[in-house]
Amino acid sequence: MNNKRAVILVSGGLDSTTVLAMARSEGYQCYTLSFDYGQRHRAELVAADRVSEALGDVEHKVVKLNLDSIGGSALTDTSIDVPEEETGGIPITYVPARNTVFLSIALGWAEVLGANDIFIGVNAVDYSGYPDCRPEYVAAFEAMANLATRAGVEGNKLTIHAPLMDMGKDEIITAGVALGVDYSLTVSCYQATEEGLACGRCDSCRLRREGFVAAGVEDPTRYLP
């Protein structure tokens, strides 16, 4: 039996779904992890479960957090409008410390499972300016993980994989299509309806649409009329 296990952070969006397909193609038993963290675009949780099942995960776990209790982001505070135009600097859709919290919980589950690998779909090309999507951040977290865990101290090196880090959205889509990903199952919109219909105007929708155009792949996204 294959004991090559990995924890995959899965949001239900395009990038993390592609990463799940990549991990599976590398022979990992995939344990997918999602977060109900108070996000306004909750259709992504349904999509995360859908893509996890479609891509043959071993187990899909949803951890409930309350990042909305601290606010500070248009994705967790409904009093802050989701921007529909490009803005300079770090956008208001940045969720404070989100990837650090998510990776920390993934790290704990990986130790429980005896998994030495964690996959995350962060990207430094089309990353919307988020500081926790940079290669320096991933390298720093991996170093911390190997200092802070029993697994790391006992010589079972933990690796944080970010295979999309240097890929454009079109390259990500092309890679996913080659691996058989059905992108109609995914939801990327920051303000998707409960049914998963995308607004077509937010930054995430813009990057997604441009990616499909550049890849020459038909966009399967269901947009609001």
From TrEMBL:
Gene3D superfamilies: HUPs
EC number: 6.3.4.20
GO biological process: tRNA queuosine(34) biosynthetic process
Reaction equation(s) it catalyzes: 7-carboxy-7-carbaguanine + NH4(+) + 2 ATP = 7-cyano-7-carbaguanine + 2 AMP + 2 diphosphate + 2 H(+)
This protein's pathway: Purine metabolism; 7-cyano-7-deazaguanine biosynthesis
Binding site for Zn(2+): C189, C199, C202, C205
Positions with a binding annotation for ATP: V10, S11, G12, G13, L14, D15, S16, T17, T18, V19, L20
Cofactor: Zn(2+)
Pfam families noted in UniProt: QueC
Enzyme class, broadest EC rank: ligase
Gene Ontology MF terms in the entry: ATP binding; ligase activity, forming carbon-nitrogen bonds; zinc ion binding
InterPro entries named among the record's database cross-references: QueC (IPR018317), Rossmann-like_a/b/a_fold (IPR014729)
UniProt keyword terms in alphabetical order: ATP-binding, Ligase, Metal-binding, Nucleotide-binding, Queuosine biosynthesis, Zinc
PANTHER family in the cross-refs: 7-CYANO-7-DEAZAGUANINE SYNTHASE
General function of this protein: Catalyzes the ATP-dependent conversion of 7-carboxy-7-deazaguanine (CDG) to 7-cyano-7-deazaguanine (preQ(0)).
Protein name: 7-cyano-7-deazaguanine synthase
Gene: queC
